[in-house]
Known about the structure:
Blueprint: H1 12-20, E1 33-37, H2 42-53, E2 63-68, H3 74-84, E3 89-92, H4 95-100, E4 102-108, H5 111-119, E5 123-127, H6 131-140, H7 148-153, E6 159-162, H8 168-197, H9 202-214
Parallel strand pairs: 1-2, 1-4, 2-3, 4-5, 5-6
Amino acid sequence: KYNYEVQYYGHPLVDIIDESLKNKEIIKNVKPIIAILPGSRKQEINSTLNKVLSIVKDFKKYQFIIAGLNHINKNIYDEAVAKSGASVKVLYNKTYDLLKNSNAAIVTSGTATLETALIGTPQIVCYATNSLNMFLAKLFVNINFISLVNLILNKEVVKELIQKNCNAKKITEELKELLMRKNKSILKEYELLFKKIGNNKASKITSKLIINSIK
């Protein structure tokens, strides 16, 4: 738009994920796994996790596991699980390993949506916040999607359940659809994402260019 000279060499997440999964940990589990990534902020977790946990009873063939983060108070996860009455585990600081071992993921919008795609796990994106925050977001940001996957590919590859659509009925419907029919089509779209986002070694190439430009 402003005629700046720009060069793009890839996304550093590709390098980070490749390095992290070199020694991938196998998560032993009797049932197939569905990962829950409820966000990295307390507000995100409080607004979406209860809704997601309410659907666990409808998927008895699966084990739901929350990707927990150490900087979040453990009680927040524990209280949400206890309130739901569901049999849900919390696995701390092993998000990439969890995603790699999962059949599907329910992800709060953010960088996690791109990480999930780059690891190759089919996903549904959920996001709910208070009405004022959403009003301000729409006022200042004019975009068609909220997940990085859809924004990069400029189409709805992963289903986005936002605000009033982020409810138990919708999440259940979309997760069943994902597990039964949509997972293969999403994986094909992920291949296009890889091509668009660039190959690995982006960090190394970019850092060399920066150093050479200031010599």
